[in-house]
Amino acid sequence: MGLAEEIVELLSEKKYKLTTAESCTGGMIASELVNVAGISEFYEEGYITYANHAKSKLLGVDEEVLKTKGAVSKEVAYMMAEGAAKAAGADVSVAVTGIAGPGGGTKEKPVGLVYIGCYVSGEVTVTENHFDGDRFAIRRQTTEKALKQLLDCMKK
Using CA atoms, how far apart are residues 115 and 121, in angstroms rounded to an integer? Predict the structure, then answer.
């Protein structure tokens, strides 16, 4: 059984509603989840918020935090996870924000830096991750890690 199948099984057991908020993955997490039959019972909507104004408008991410910390930050991942759950009326959410490359990286925030936030029943957990490879590889690794982190957070 794959991660997405395990997530759907756990959503069913716990009667949780799930949403996603994706930036650098551009819908890959949602795509993995909707490959599982029966997901529609638990997943009604997700958000692809690539631009900062979309993060603010759709997820309620504080514009001042975006300016001071940047879109790729622990704080923004936290606000994305919390904001997505609130916007969708969900019990659980997973959010990702990062730099997939090949450009856009800096010494402080290199290509492959990704923050993943999980919201479960009011509690948010954020991890800092560093992935290697080309743009697709970084997006793929982010998707896998986000699904694993979501599953782990739901098991707590």
Answer: 20
- CATH code of 47's domain: 3.90.950.20
Q: Is the pTM of this model over 0.90?
A: yes
Segment (H or E) for 98? strand 92-98
Using DSSP's 3-state secondary structure scheme, residue 34 falls into: helix
pLDDT tens for each residue of the chain, 156 residues long? 899 999 999 999 999 999 999 999 999 999 999 999 999 999 999 999 999 999 999 999 999 999 999 999 999 999 999 999 999 999 999 999 999 999 999 999 999 999 999 999 999 999 999 999 999 999 999 999 999 999 999 998
The SS3 call for residue 39 is helix
Q: How many domains does the chain have?
A: 1
Task: Please give the residue range of the domain that contains residue 20.
Answer: 3-7+15-155
* 8 A C-beta contact, residue 84 and residue 20: yes
Taking the CB of residue 82, how many other CB atoms lie within 10 A of it? 21
Length of the chain counted residue by residue: 156
C-alpha Rg value of the chain to the nearest Å: 14
